[in-house]
Amino acid sequence: MGSYSVLAALPWPVVPVLLILAVVVKRRFLSSIRDNPGPFLASISSFWKVQQIINGHIEEEMLALHREHGDFVRVTDNEVSVGHPDAVKHLLHAKIAKGSWYQVFSIPDYRFVSQMSETDPQRHIDKGKNVAAGYALSNIIKSETYVDDIIATLKGQLNSLIESRKPVHLDKWFNYFAFDVVGEVTFSQSFGFVKAGNDIGNAIANARKLALYVSIMGHFVWFHNLTIGNPLMSTLGLIPASHLFDTCVAAIDARKKNPEARNDMMERWLNVRNTHPERMTDAEVFAAAAANVGAGAETVSASLQALIYYLLQNPMYLRRLQNELDMAQVRGELSPVVQYAEAQNLPYLQACIKEAYRYHSSIGTNLPRVVPKGGLTIRGRYFAEGTLLSVNLWVIHRNPDLFGPDSNSFNPERWLDKERAKTMDYFLVHWGAGYNQCPGRNLAHFEINKLAATLIRDYEFERVDPKKEWSFKNHFITTPCDWPCRAKRREMAGV
Ligand code: HEM
């Protein structure tokens, strides 16, 4: 009797159970990554990892597992998380493909491939060249006066809250601010969140739902493409990404009618599209705009929040920073809204911002890469072609061998020694590294510098309940919430 007829003779429920058992045994005991330690469930499926993402603190799990097991931890049946610093060189800097997880970032569906969702290194680099001019600092600086206006409006809102003795929810204001800046720099028009003082059309609430959705469904891209990521669904507007899609369509339409549209990012991309139609399609221009709106707000908000929150937890550092700002103000070196160039001359501010990037990285889930042809050896351990190797930025950033024995504490002063900072800089990978490095980093750093310097110079913040920790869920982006403050104006305040 052949094996088929043996199976046919069994009662039907036994067959699927046997098949599942065979898959479990194969993944657990026969896989080429079977010797890498980790939770049992992780060795047989993606469900352990997905569960951690849903729980919202995979960064804590990864820190704990790497402390327990060392450099290599198996996180799915085909993925190993690499915690050793060599991962920065071998995985982030290397020109190797990104895992299929990223494909789910094609918003609203797989026809709209952005830099983020492009997994092939060469195609990704080509796409990067098409959009690079828009992200150049020299281009972003041209929007400085418009960003100044958003900061002035935000200060107006804070002053009203102070007058009416209401608490200040910086988590919300920083999100509104970052969304408005993306609008201004990409489409020559802020979305108007700061002025309205609320989450217009639930855009931010929807962005969070979308982040949870993509970070889970990236593990099941085939299913996503068949269902929610099917072009038919987006055409009918039935998908979680439709809000982001609609926001971009509306912004692009408004821009077309705006006689004051500047030489903004859109303009730069449309120039490439018009002069080299063979290099860039309309869908790509749209995808780049959607990537900005999707990636450029919550990330910035997370870093700004971390900066202020941890300075409030560590008043000694806050006083030193205020002192630096006050001295610069007295010397007449700061404008009413601090200019980017002015902020660059404040070394303590720079140290504090770097420490916020390190201590609370905005991107908190593992970033997967595919082992290329011929395999890859890291720290003497060989990984076969096709295996996923991933890096969690929190694991790199909290490594005491790289950042000192107090790597688990917020201490901006570790950055003040220039020689030491130089060695640490290579491992400060909050923007990622290599060909996948964040293209929005100039914009993010620009706006964070300006807003942080202006607010810390002009206001004193105090937590309403200093004993209560903030809360945050790491669904790819680690944007915190729920830490209301009382604010008052400082005597040194700029005009
Ligand atoms: C503090 C703020 C920010 C941080 C920490 C940050 C971090 C990152 C990281 C780590 C990646 C790479 C992920 C990977 O390797 O897979 C990334 C990608 C990306 N970021 Fe940012 N980002 C920030 C702000 C922004 C802003 C303001 C924009 C645009 C306006 C932006 C646009 C993008 C895009 C389009 C990608 C995908 C690029 C690619 O895959 O090549 N980001 N970001």
From TrEMBL:
Gene3D superfamilies, per database record: Cytochrome P450
Keywords from the named record: Iron, Membrane, Metal-binding, Transmembrane, Transmembrane helix
Cofactor(s) named in the record: heme
Record-annotated membrane-spanning stretches: 6-25
SUPFAM superfamilies tied to this protein: Cytochrome P450
CDD domains: CYP57A1-like (cd11060)
Top-level division of the source organism's lineage: Eukaryota
Family: Belongs to the cytochrome P450 family.
Protein name: Cytochrome P450
Organism: Aspergillus cavernicola
